[in-house]
Amino acid sequence: MEKTKILICMGTSGLSAGAESLAANFEKELERHNLAGKCRVVRTGDRGLFRDILVDIVAPGGGRVTYEYVKPEDAVRITEAHLLRGEPVKELLAGEDYKQFFAGQMRIVLANCGEIDPENIEDYIACGGYKALALALSMTPEKVAQEVKASGLRGRGGAGFLTGLKWEFCRAAKSGVKYVICNGDEGDPGAFMDRSILEGDPQAVIEGMIIAGYAIGAGEGYVYCRAEYPLAIKRLEKAIAQAGKKGFLGKSVLKSGFAFDIRIKQGAGAFVCGEETALIASIEGRRGMPVPRPPFPAQQGLWGKPTTINNVETLANVAHIITKGAKWFAAIGPEGSKGTKVFALAGKVKNTGLVEVPMGTTLRSLVFGPGGGMLHKNIGFKGVQIGGPSGGCLPESLLDTPIDYESITRTGAIMGSGGMVVMDQLTCMVDMARFFLDFTVSESCGKCVPCRVGLKRMLEVLEEICAGGGRPGHLEFLNELAPAIKDTALCGLGNTAPNSVLTTLKYFPEEYKEHIEDRICRASACVPLVKFEVLEAKCIKCGRCKTVCPSGAITWEKGGYARIDKVKCIKCKACINICPVMAIK
Amino acid sequence: MKINLAAAKKLVGKYRDKKGALIPLLQEVQASYGYVPGEAVSLIAGEFGIYPVDIYGILTFYAQFYLTPQGKHIVKVCQGTACHVMGGKELLDYMADSLGAAEGKPTRDGQFSLERVACLGCCGMAPAIVVDHDFYGRCTIQKVEGILGKYRPSKKAKPGL
């Protein structure tokens, strides 16, 4: 008999809120009420919405009730009310925001995340897992690559190269030994879809890798995973072991005679290792420094052998394409950008989390649809940063841009891996440009001059501007140097690093001007330009600033204006960040 | 202080003759010593027949490796984009101040090391910090004092939730 499932979201957000003890409490309760024969606890991966612990009760018929912000001790009342008496616990029911977040999404890659137990291969198989592998093995390798090419699937890691074409190049390379690498070095700050896929549905990535291996003629695969993701590594290890036991990996995959095995390589903390040649150097045990292409990895990759490198999300699409067909996939999304894309929505937006939408959706419908609009109702939208350090900041006027590879590139940003950080009036665009350059400067491998020296010079200028030392000529300098670096740097890191500066200069020139000419930061973000004074004309006398000040610098009495004691103030900006009306400048 | 190299020797034996072994070997050395001691570098260089400078090249390239002993608890403050927008930098500055810790150096009592990390991949709960292996999301300056308190030796409270 099918059991009622209690799905408990064990993503980072759930785990840090005590999801493990909640699961244990549920198991205790089931035991106590003699329900173990009727219900089972399923520890799932991340569903993508950060709501502390999410719990779903799924009845055998499929009817489901979702609870959010559940605490470990709530297991008792949910069991007694819902499971025993059939009355849902009203206070914990997921609200409108939850529904809005999932409405309008099209979950293909994330379909299993938050629905199945990632540490149990049977759960994956029960949802149709590994059917694609059996189907692929009944086709010729050429046909498999063709099918993926015909689907129009493009790499989800950033560059957007046609996956099937990549496979065909590698297939054509003559060599007895070839490799498949899954790029799980999700280094873009602001992106976390690969992490959630690896943690929530590792078998889908493994299945994609095996199919890729079959298509190109490789016998061995590597998953290169960031060391910052220990849970993903642990789940992958388990998943690989289980797939091996089931005969999906090993000397003869599903007794077809095709041999394939997967190993995990742990990264050691270097953003540039997301670049494919640097990633290969890192697996080989060297400093992760890129080398010029050609030769492309498809001809000469790992240990000098032909190698295909695909991103986690790309590989997670493969099984769906094989089972449902290239035509099905190609019917989703506009010309040139097929399928769905997962975005990591974060920053000053109400609902933060992973959103999967068909390509061609506009930025606006993402931010104000699943995102639920701005976090603070009185502090308006300023921009959205997409594509990570290689991407750019786009203003409100571009919110109706459809999300596809070409349209996004035309704005000066890039699709990238899908990080999407929403910024409000409290975010300074000059500071954002400085932030990204600070990141790329520290992550530059130092091999080529434009990236090593050029980015550093740009950063110095931006730091001066943010500190109130901007001078005439600074903007001209940035405008001259940025394109030069774009054109001459060796790899993708340097080629795209100036994008954040170029897009902010293009779309938010007035902020640069104010910093340089008037020594004003309108967002009150650049500390040297902030006076830390309360504007009485704006202050609503709510006193929130007083409650968060860690140094006791703010005096406020009910009904009066807040005041900041400049001697005690440590300029931590806690008051600025909590003020609902931007009254502190 | 004299370093006992027995563990490092055992690990060298485990990774000898393996392809691309150097980085995983150094990761395991760090896992057992808490950092990569100079003595272990000399040992590995000798055993693998490579120059110590090549090993230092790797150690200084990747952010994960430490060349000096670290504090008992490692506090990582995320400086990713979402955390930056949500006040991660102010959080880092405040913690450096209140702990009296410089980046890369443990506090004087040896309890904490403070680090900035590029992104922890939990942008939905920004700003985030990790103490050892415990994640804390939506941190504020006031909240971090309580979090650090759980790890200070005087308090008997158990870490984590």
Describe the fold and architecture.
The complex is a heterodimer of chains A (585) and B (161). Chain A has 585 residues and is of the alpha/beta class. Chain A has helices at residues 12-16, 19-32, 74-85, 96-102, 121-126, 131-137, 141-151, 163-172, 193-200, 202-216, 230-245, 276-283, 312-324, 326-330, 363-368, 405-411, 429-443, 449-466, 474-488, 492-496, 499-507, 509-518, 544-548, 574-578; strands at 4-9, 39-44, 55-58, 64-67, 179-184, 220-225, 261-266, 307-311, 340-347, 353-358, 381-386, 392-395, 419-424, 554-555, 563-564. The N and C termini of chain A lie far apart (64 Å). In chain B, helix 1 runs antiparallel to helix 2. In chain B, strands 2-1-3-4 form a four-stranded mixed beta sheet, with helices on one face. Chain B is α+β, with helices and mostly antiparallel strands and 161 residues long. Chain B has helices at 6-15, 22-33, 38-48, 52-61, 81-85, 88-99, 141-149; strands at 73-78, 112-117, 129-131, 134-136. Chain B contains seven helices and four strands. The longest helix of chain B has 12 residues, at 22-33. The mean pLDDT of chain B is 90. At the A-B interface, helix 1, strand 9, strand 13 and helix 17 of A face helix 2, helix 4, helix 5, helix 6 and strand 4 of B.
Note the main attributes of this structure.
heterodimer; A: 585 residues; alpha/beta; Glutaredoxin; Rossmann fold; Ubiquitin-like (UB roll); 5 domains; five-stranded mixed beta sheet; four-stranded mixed beta sheet; B: 161 residues; alpha+beta; 7 helices; 4 strands; 11% strand; elongated
Indicate the topology.
The complex is a heterodimer of chains A (585) and B (161).
Chain A: E1 4-9, H1 12-16, H2 19-32, E2 39-44, E3 55-58, E4 64-67, H3 74-85, H4 96-102, H5 121-126, H6 131-137, H7 141-151, H8 163-172, E5 179-184, H9 193-200, H10 202-216, E6 220-225, H11 230-245, E7 261-266, H12 276-283, E8 307-311, H13 312-324, H14 326-330, E9 340-347, E10 353-358, H15 363-368, E11 381-386, E12 392-395, H16 405-411, E13 419-424, H17 429-443, H18 449-466, H19 474-488, H20 492-496, H21 499-507, H22 509-518, H23 544-548, E14 554-555, E15 563-564, H24 574-578
Helix pairs in contact in A: 2-3, 6-10, 6-13, 7-8, 7-10, 9-10, 9-11, 10-13, 17-18, 17-21, 18-19, 19-21
Chain B: H1 6-15, H2 22-33, H3 38-48, H4 52-61, E1 73-78, H5 81-85, H6 88-99, E2 112-117, E3 129-131, E4 134-136, H7 141-149
Parallel strand pairs in B: 1-2
Antiparallel strand pairs in B: 1-3, 3-4
Helix pairs in contact in B: 1-2
